[in-house]
Amino acid sequence: MNNTIAGFSKLTKEDKINWIANSYFSDVSEAISIIKKYWNTDLKIQQLHDEFIENTITNFYLPLGVAPNFLINGKYKTIPMAIEESSVVAAAAKSAKYWATRGGFKATVLNTEKIGQVHFKYNGDVLILEYFFKEIKSKFLVATESITKNMQKRGGGILDIELRNKTNLIENYFQLHVTFETKDSMGANFINSCLEQIAKTLKEEANIFEGFADIEENIQIVMSILSNYVPNCVVRAEVSCKVEELAEKNIENPLEFAEKFVQAVQIAEVEPYRAVTHNKGIMNGIDSVVVATGNDFRAVEAGIHAYASRNGQYSSLSHAKIENGIFSFWLEIPLALGTVGGLTSLHPLVKLSLEMLEKPSAKELMEIVAVAGLAQNFAALRSLTTTGIQEGHMKMHLNNILNQFQATAEERILINKHFKGNTVSHSAAVEFFEKLRK
Asked: What pTM, to 2 d.p., does this model score?
């Protein structure tokens, strides 16, 4: 079968679905039925979702859960989390409850600078280029005034523009490295609009600059784009208490627990194979809140993992120590987030999530997201260094196994009762199912 089609984007939604169902599925009516089951019955909401991206055929749902009792900088928060992985929300809520009685989480935004770059080639005298840049630098700010005017009213805008020589990496390669403050917006469109205008001005001024008169194709613009690596847009989240205060049901010897916990973090600091999984656990908390609040989790992921490699080797984002009888656990991560613009004013559940968080500023959202990541990491390390991570995770995963086998209410009762005293695994659950059904 030839599964190619011309003009697919011009088809109606119904025709797109019919073509896909007939091209790829043996049971056409079942495929169409599943696709349409996930449509929203509210036509306005469905149209909104249809227009978020191109060639929409249906909605792909993620569960939206909440983790209550987060004490952050002295205020209690209930954090919305959109994620499909079992035990993540439960682990975050457990950490929130644990630390609420030990002083809570402290969070501080260290900086909020964002970066964009104009990449270009130049094949002339570098000293002449440097002189040219100094002469026209102020013109970049004038040329972008119409774009930056509203942002400047909110206290943001272009902070600085630098000429950077990258010819040691690529022949004739230079860049304008631009620093921005975007306040409560993530700022991607704002930054890219500024950069394109700066690139246009750069080329226009180069064409009339007498110092370049003898250079053919003096400046060649390659591209203008923001960077998702924002090492100067950083937030710190931390918890600390006396070592003896760490005690609870599964932590009978708090000093032993604290020492083992610190060792586990140290392993992630020096061993990349462990660091990747360690940081993935942090991202379980971060991504779920980023998605729930309508922010770009791919940009956040890329920037954070680049930050984890900034010293030449991929390493743990979190750190821990015991000093003078005090246990401390913290992380510092780059986060470029927004609470205005984009999906924040369009997606009904994003608006609801932000209202649940009491309409935070971008800085406050940075703090909340960082805390969610630290809480998730604490929960994982506590399990790993005490009971092991699979016990709790597989008990949560048991629900997925029950759904997979379409267990009856009676079977669910018997299976849950059986695994209260037995280790949960997929094979053990399948084996017990088969015995029940025989």
From this structure: 0.88
